[in-house]
Amino acid sequence: MTGRDRKYGRGNDCRTESERTTKNRKGAFNMQRRTWTTGLLVLSIAFVSACSGAKTGGDNEKGTAVQPKQAETPANPYSKLDQPIELTYYLNAGGYSQESFMKGVGKSLKEKFPNVTFKVYWRDKGTMLADLIASGTSIDIISASSGTIADIVELGLGQDITDLIQQNKFDLNKLEPTAVDGMRKLSGGKLYGLPVQVSTTALFYNKDLFDKFGVAYPKDNMAWDEIYELAKKMTRTDGSAKYKGFGVSFSHLALMNQYSQELVDPKTEKAVLNSDNWKKIFNNMVRFYQIPGNETTIDELNSPSTAFNKNKNVAMMAMIGGSSFPPETTNWDVVSLPLLPEVKGVGSAPYSTYYAVPNNSKNREAAFQVIAWLTSEEYQKTLIDQGFIPVLKDKQYKDQMGKNIPALAGKNVKGVVPDQYASPITLSPYMNMATAPLYAAFNSVALGEKDVSTALREADEKANIDIAAKKASIK
Fold first, then answer.
1. Could you tell me which of 108, 127, 466, 473 has the fewest CB atoms within 10 Å of its CB?
2. Do 104 and 195 share a structural domain?
3. Where is the signal peptide, in residue numbers (predicted)?
4. pLDDT tens-digit profile of 271-311?
């Protein structure tokens, strides 16, 4: 990618920064992350990032999704996994291997179900989802983040699992409803899969910098205006050292935005970037980069966590949380994403890791039972202990997050879980066509090259041209 491409966001897809760099991520938590990787299938990320809300047979006459009827748990909810069986597992992300699978979620699955063998594929040359479909390879389980799960729709792999939910008496009501809703929006009201884990956008801060300048730490549930004033206090020069008050991983913020503002209208399948809410989101963030001394660069915009985690010269950073944390070498803590006056009490939307049973699976019920166990309290507690956000909606679990990780002792880890999740955006197959011009537009405004209205109007036009081109290419 050329310098010009980096500046204007070309080549970006809907994965988050963390999704794009998973293969190369290093840090002081790496040793611990060998266990933390249990169930961790992060995205993106960007994208960060999120097709249709049409009625189906699972909707009532008013168009509201009907919850599958629940029943008591069967005597053996994992009966199909007691006998020897091979399941094909696909991770819709790169930088993976059979070894990493067995160090992470595969280890837990093998310990629980010793008779099950997993044949693992991931995104690589010759093993993209489209490649496997073309070769006639059946897939039993697809794991993907919010940023890549729409591939199952684009490739025609979606299949409703409501029958499996009812047949296996699965209690859907135990799951975080907004995470389930993300899949319903993708599936047109159906359920192609279930969420297993969620991430959010939260506000991380460097305690050493606040201590150095004698400024009080940020708190949970502060307003964005309060954080803006705090950022002005923390932006300063001390001798030859320059410190910045605030930075943002915009791709995460956009995909988990508090307005639930869509990138692509699920009905018209057209980009909706030139909207009042996107203007509000841009203006809210850009003002931080207009604070004297807090101006940004294209490198900081493309890799925002570096300034916080490595350079340690940024006091606060709004970035992804609940699936990864800053290195132990940074004296950090975290609070909830600041609040907006227009959507009172609403925090980050969930960025979910979904497990789906595609329509070419030869072992649908066994595959579903694997996914059901991954949402069980037994497995979810292993994620909670490692500091990850569970998909279980019971708020009691957030007080238990990270209790088995010494490096998280004394930290406000539960701050990454909002009191109220924003509704997730629709994870459209055309999302990539909208995210790239949106991120490029934000960069251009943050760098002072364009005004908000111009940047968003041009981004909207570019996105719709690209969406039209993609539609034409698949006819």
1. 473
2. yes
3. none
4. 999 999 999 999 999 999 999 999 999 999 999 999 999 99
Contact status, residue 246 vs residue 294, Cβ threshold 8 Å: yes
**Taking 50 as the threshold, does the pLDDT of residue 173 lie above it?**
yes
Distance CA 180, CA 177 (A): 5
| Whole-number pLDDT of residue 239 | 92
Yes or no: say if 231 and 293 are a contact pair by the CB < 8 Å rule.
Answer: no
Q: Which amino acid is at 202?
A: A
Query: Strand, helix or coil at 455?
Result: helix
Q: C-alpha angle with apex 253: 388 to 30, nearest 5 degrees?
A: 35
The residue among 284, 274, 308 whose CA lies nearest residue 453 is 274
Are 336 and 465 part of one and the same domain? yes
pLDDT digits (tens, 9 = 90+) for 91-130: 999 989 999 999 999 999 999 999 999 999 999 999 999 9
- Total of domains in the chain: 2
Q: Is residue 62 assigned to a domain? A: no
Q: Which residues pair with 353 in a beta bridge?
A: 145, 197
Which amino acid makes up residue 379?
Y
In a shared domain, residues 330 and 232: yes
Residue 31 in domain: no
**d(C-alpha 174, C-alpha 349), whole Å:** 18
DSSP bridge partners of 119: 88
Asked if residues 251 and 46 have their Cβ atoms less than 8 Å apart, the reply is yes
What pTM does this model have?
A: 0.84
Instruction: Please report which helix (H) or strand (E) contains residue 464, including its range.
Output: helix 452-473
Question: In a 10 Å sphere around its CB, with 0-12 CB exposed, 13-18 middle and 19+ buried, how is residue 164 labelled?
Answer: buried
* Residue 437 within a domain: yes
Structure tokens at 415: 């701050």
Number of C-beta neighbours around residue 473 at 10 A: 7
Instruction: Answer whether 235's CB lies under 8 Å from 247's CB.
Output: no
d(CA 453, CA 275): 9
CA distance 161 to 170: 11
Query: For residue 285, what are the domain limits?
Result: 3-15+200-349+426-473
Q: Using CA atoms, how far apart are residues 349 and 422, in angstroms rounded to an integer? A: 4
